Amino acid sequence: MTTHDALVGTLPGVRLENDTHVCEITRFGAHVASWRVKRTSDELLFRSKLAKLDGTKAIRGGVPVCFPQFSDMGPCAQSHGFARTSVWAVEALSATEVTMVLRRGDEAGDGDAFGGDYEARFTATLDGDALRTALRVTNAGKSCFEFTSALHTYFRVSDCAKTKVRGLRGTTYLDNLRARASAKDDEDAVEFSGEVDRIYTDAPSVLTIDDEALGRRFRVAKTSTFPDAVVWNPALTDKTRGMSDFGDEEYREMVCVEVAGVKDKITVEPGETWEASQTISYSAI
Ligand SMILES: O=P(O)(O)OC[C@H]1O[C@@H](O)[C@H](O)[C@@H](O)[C@@H]1O
C-alpha cells in the first residue's frame, strides 16, 4: 500500500500487493500499467517497450480507461476520450485496492465537448489470483448525460498466431475494418492471422483467451452493464508502422479484449451512478 512519485517512468501512482501478485496503477489515466506474478515477475499484461511513460500520450498497454467515449463514438476529439490522458486523484487506498477519481473540470482535453457534470471513479482490486477493475460514473449535475466506454485491456501472449479468443461464436460484431458493417461470428474462436478489430455487441459475460503456445488461459468476466466486447490486434500494417509507441513486431505479443458499452450509449440521470466492471484471472489450459 504505497504511493510513489515516479512509479512507472516518470508517472506517479500506487502499487498494490497481495501474497501472489503486484499491480501498479498510475494516476495518469487511472491506468493499470502492470499486473504481475510476485514470485516470478511474470507480467500478465502487455505494455509496449516504446510506450510513452511521461504523460505526453496514453500508455500503450495495460488497461486504458476509455471514457467518455470509445474510439470516435462520442463528442470528444480525442480517440477513446479524455480519461486515459487525465490525471486522476487517489481517493481511497489499501494494500490490495485503490480508488481514483476524476471530476468535471479536472480532465485534460475535451470536458466541454462532453458537457456532462460527471464524477468518474476507477477501482482496481487484487483478489487472490484475480484482478478486478471497475468504473463508476456519477451524474453530479442537473441534466442527464450519455457516453460510451471501455476497459481496454492488453493481454500479454507469447504468440498471437497461437492465441484464440473463445466465447463469441454465434454473436454479432461490427467490423471496424469494414466501416463497422455488421457480421455474425460463426467460428469456434477468434484467431489472429491478420488485423482484427471488432466490436461484439451483447457479448457473453465470460470470454477466454487461450495462449496455446504458453499453455495459459485468461478468463475475462464482465458485468452486464458492459454489454459489449471489443477484440483488437493490429497486425503489421502501415497503421502499426506509423505508431510511434508500438514496435513493428509487438503485435505478436498482445491481444486486446475490451469490455465495453458501445452499441447503445450509456445514460446517467442526475444523481444516479452507473457502474460496470471486469474480473480477469488466468489458469493453465
Ligand atoms: O491507438 P489507440 O487510440 O489507443 O486505439 C487503439 C485501438 O483501440 C481499439 O479499441 C480500437 O478498436 C482500434 O480501432 C484502435 O486502433
UniProtKB/TrEMBL annotation:
PANTHER family: APOSPORY-ASSOCIATED PROTEIN C-RELATED, GLUCOSE-6-PHOSPHATE 1-EPIMERASE
Enzyme class: isomerase
Species the sequence originates in: Ostreococcus lucimarinus (strain CCE9901)
Family assignment from sequence similarity: Belongs to the glucose-6-phosphate 1-epimerase family.
Superkingdom, taxonomy of origin: Eukaryota
Name under which the protein is recorded: glucose-6-phosphate 1-epimerase
InterPro entries xref list: Aldose_1/G6P_1-epimerase (IPR008183), G6P_1-epimerase (IPR025532), Gal_mutarotase_sf_dom (IPR011013), GH-type_carb-bd (IPR014718)
Keyword Metal-binding: no
SUPFAM superfamilies associated with the record: Galactose mutarotase-like
Listed EC numbers: 5.1.3.15
Residue numbers annotated as active site: H152, E258
Pfam families found in the cross-reference section: Aldose_epim
Keyword terms of this UniProt record: Isomerase
One MF term in the entry's GO annotations: glucose-6-phosphate 1-epimerase activity
GO biological process: carbohydrate metabolic process
Record's GO cellular component terms: cytoplasm
Catalytic activity, as annotated: alpha-D-glucose 6-phosphate = beta-D-glucose 6-phosphate
